[in-house]
Amino acid sequence: MVVIGAGFGGLYAVKQFVNTDIEVTLVDKRNFHLFQPLLYQVATGTISAPDISAPVRSIFGDKKNITVRLDIANGIDPYNRYIQTKSHARIRYDDLIVATGVSHHYFGNDEWEKHAPGLKSIEDAFEMRRRIFSAFEMAENETDPGRRKQLLNFVIIGGGPTGVELAGALADLAFKTLDGHFHNIDTKKECEIYLIEALPKVLPTFENKLSDISKKYLEKMGVNVLTNSKVVDITSDTVIYEQKGQRHVLETKTTLWGAGVRASAWGMILSEAANVEVDKVGRVYVKKDFSLPKYNNIFVIGDLARFQDKNNEFLPGVAPVAMQAGEFVAKLIKARAEGYNFSEEFTYKDKGSLAVIGRNKAVADLGYMKAQGFVAWILWIFVHICFLIGFDNKVSVLIKWALNYFNQDKGTSLIFVKE
């Protein structure tokens, strides 16, 4: 069996095959598994990248039936059952799981990417962190008031969990952590943080009450929340948006993207090679067992999959869906290998939704209960982190994260600049 991608879906699928008679090859372009939900804290200097990364070989390196390959899978021959890699290797498979996720989507305005980086990888987080902390440093040295104001304006586009959590972390950074750290600027008084969302509310997948509470939390923290506001242009020093038919211009040198997503290249690879249907952003439509319509030995899971449940609703692109799908497909493949029919249907067990806005501020909708404030924040720590992180050393990682998170004056605010 071959698995492409060491994200949540791929990782949880491979774990099911440890110490079995099935030979597994795991292919990924990076040598580590990344806990993406905490990337925004790397971007704002709260924690360091190793705190949310686990080397794949430290997880599977001692498992005799698991082979880890650092390579880029870039092609497939579904008829002859092999994938092609960038190193020109052909890796044959009996069953294939594709779990390569998604990247940023700028809704047809790809030129915006150079002005507004997204947040899907460690490299993205480093770039955001460089821009954020560089803005403060340049503002400290800037003598022109207009230019300094522009440097201290921060704009975040997208009011989903990524945008909301990033806005809250940036507010904590500007108004608390860095307060008093500069001599020529007052971050607490001079910084302006804007969160722009095209829909009528932030956290649109949450119920209205929790969404409204989140907005109030952000505004109380000093974030200017602009809903019903559609971004129409982004340049190196401005963001232009429309609200109620009128155009507005925000002067800023730091724009951060937390809006749409686009499927990885494997969406189009499978579309062309396996004649599979994809949606408008390249996600692959799959059957009820996550296999492709014409190939029952090729499975697509995680954010790349477009899976419709028994209520004809598409599952969201979140980590719990990917993990449960990975475990489900692995059980199916093991059943086939052992020679018996696998009749179980995939049913997503919704663990609920959580979003943290700042220290002691969060919202949680777990279905059977809803919470806000400190209680939701505690739930976020022990449910969101302990449950999702999936590392063997989750306790030590959690303790290290907690120490860094509580100590506001300590963090990873290093700026890396290419010479």
Query: Runs with pLDDT <50, length 5+?
Result: none
Strand order in the sheet with the most strands: 5-2-1-9-21-20
Query: Could you say how many structural domains there are in total?
Result: 2
- Gross morphology is elongated
Secondary structure category: alpha/beta
Number of strands: 25
Helical stretch count? Answer: 12
CATH topology of the largest domain: FAD/NAD(P)-binding domain
The second-level CATH architecture of the largest domain is: 3-Layer(bba) Sandwich
What does the main sheet amount to?
Answer: 6 strands, mixed
Helix coverage percent? 25-40%
- What is the CATH first-level class name of the largest domain? Alpha Beta
What is the rounded distance between the termini? 43 Å
Mean pLDDT: 89
Radius of gyration: 22 Å
How are the elements arranged and paired?
Blueprint: E1 2-4, H1 8-15, E2 24-28, E3 32-34, H2 39-43, E4 53-55, H3 56-60, E5 66-70, E6 73-77, E7 82-85, E8 90-92, E9 96-98, E10 102-104, H4 122-141, H5 145-151, E11 153-157, H6 161-177, H7 187-190, E12 192-196, H8 208-221, E13 223-226, E14 229-234, E15 238-243, E16 246-251, E17 254-257, E18 261-263, H9 266-274, E19 284-285, E20 291-292, E21 295-300, E22 305-306, H10 319-337, E23 353-358, E24 361-365, E25 370-372, H11 373-389, H12 394-406
Parallel strand pairs: 1-2, 1-9, 2-5, 9-21, 11-12, 11-17, 12-13, 19-22
Antiparallel strand pairs: 3-4, 6-7, 7-8, 10-18, 14-15, 15-16, 20-21, 23-24, 24-25
